[in-house]
Amino acid sequence: MATAMILLPRSAIRAGDLITLKAMISHPMETGFRRTETGGEIPRNIIRQFSCRYMGELVFSCDFHPAIAANPFLAFPLVATRTGPLEFVWRGDNGFLHREQAMLQVSAS
Amino acid sequence: MIRRAGRALVLLAVLAGALNADEIPPGERLSGYDMMGAEAQAMQRDDFANPAMLAVKEGEALWHAVPGEGRPSCAGCHGDAAASMKGVAARYPARDVPSGRLFDLPGRIQACQNGRQGIAPQPRESTGLLALEAYLALQSRGMPLASPRARGLDDAVQRGEGLYRQRFGQLDLSCAQCHSQNWGRSLAGTRIPQAHPTGYPLFRMEWQAVGSLQRRFRNCMTGIRAEPFPPGAPEWIDLEIYLKERAAGMRVDAPAVRP
Question: So what's the ipTM on this one?
Answer without folding.
Answer: 0.76
